Amino acid sequence: PSSVSAAFQEYLQHLGLQDFPCGFGSWNKSRLHGRRSPWAEPAGLEEALPPGEETPEALLELLRDQHSPWALPPDCSPQDRLLREVAALAPELLHGSRVFQAVKSLRILDKGVEEVDEGLLRFQQLEELILSANSISRVTSAHLPQTLKVLELCCNAVDDLQDLCARPPPMLQHLGLGYNRLCGPSQEKHLTVDFWPNLVSLDLSFNSLTDLLELVSQLSTLQNLHILVLQGNPLALIPTYRGFLVDSLPKLSILDDIHIWPEEREQFHGLARQPELIRSEARVVVSIGEMNGLPNPEAFQQLEVGSEGPVITYSYYVTYEF
C-alpha cells in the first residue's frame, strides 16, 4: 500500500474483525436484530441462547486461549487485542466507519507507505501515529488529526519539515524524526515553540544536521522539552557538543538517552556563554599497529652505486570512509 489509509485497510483485513468469532453472524444473530445484549444474560445460562449461537464469554475464550486457532500471536499489540475483543462483545461499535472512532493508536511499520493521505482525518480520536521504516519523504500537516500527541517517523526519507509545520497538531508531545535526511541549516527554523508548543520529546538522531549554534537557538524556545536525541548527526562530533547542550538547555533531563544529573550540569556551567569553543571541524586520529606480509619499501631503495638492473618500487595508501 502506498498510503496510510490503504495500509490501515490491509491491517483491518488481517485482524478479521468481521469474521468469526468477531463481527455479526450466525453465532450471534439475535444480537444483530437487537433482541439480546451481550451483557443481558448472566453467565452460565447458555441454554437460553438460540440454537447455534455462542455466549460472549465463549467468543472471548476463543480469542484468548493460546491454543485456539483464532487467537492472536503473543507479540501482537494491546490495541490488536482490544479491537478483536470489542468486535466479539459489541461488534456494532466497530461496524462500518465507527472503527475509526475506536482507534487511538495506529502503528504501520515497514509497509512501503509513501503518502500520509487525508484519510487520516477520519481518525478523530487518534493520539499516537507510528509510521516508522516506510518511504515517506513529505508529511502534510493538514492530513494529521489535531488530537495527535505522538508522531513517530523514524527511518523514512523526510528531508524537509515545511509541509509538516504548516499546521502541526498543537498537542503533540513527541516528534520522532530519527534516521531521515534532514540537513542544516534550513531545517532548524521549524523546531521552535511557534510550531510545537507542547513538545516534550524530540528525536533528530542520525540525520545530517551541522549547525549546533543555530539548532540550540531554536530549541531553547521549546519550554517543555525534556528529552532530546541528536546522536548520529555531524554536529555531535564537536568536542564540546554535550556540555554546550546541557548548559544551553537547562530544562533538558535526558540527552542522547543519557540522564543529565546535577553534577554534570554544574560541571558544564558557563559553557553556553563560550560559543567560540564550538568549531565546525573534527579531528580523527587513526593509529595502525603492526602489518604483516607487506614488503618494506625502504629495503628496495638501498641500491648499489652503478647498478644497471631494473628498479622496482613499492608504495601503499590507506583510505578512510566516513
Summary keywords:
322 residues, alpha/beta, eight-stranded mixed β-sheet, 8 helices, 7% strand, LRR_dom_sf
Your description of this structure?
- With 322 residues, the chain is an alpha/beta fold.
- Helix content is 20%, strand content 7%.
- It is built from eight helices and eight strands, in the order αααααβββββαβαββα.
- It has an eight-stranded mixed β-sheet, with helices on one face.
- Helix 6 links the parallel strand 5 and strand 6.
- It comes from Illadopsis cleaveri (blackcap illadopsis).
- InterPro entries: Leu-rich_rpt, LRR_dom_sf.
- This is LRC43 protein.
* Largest pleated sheet: 8 strands, mixed
Roughly how many Å apart are the termini? 35 Å
Residue ranges: pLDDT <50 for 5 or more in a row?
39-47
Report the total helices: 8
Query: What pattern of helices and strands is seen along the backbone?
Result: HHHHHEEEEEHEHEEH
Rough shape?
elongated
Q: Structural class given helices, strands, pairing?
A: alpha/beta
Average pLDDT figure: 85
Strand arrangement, major sheet: 1-2-3-4-5-6-7-8
Write down the Rg. Answer: 30 Å
Instruction: Tell me the fraction of residues in β-strands, as a range.
Output: 5-15%
Number of strands: 8
- The share of residues in helices is 10-25%
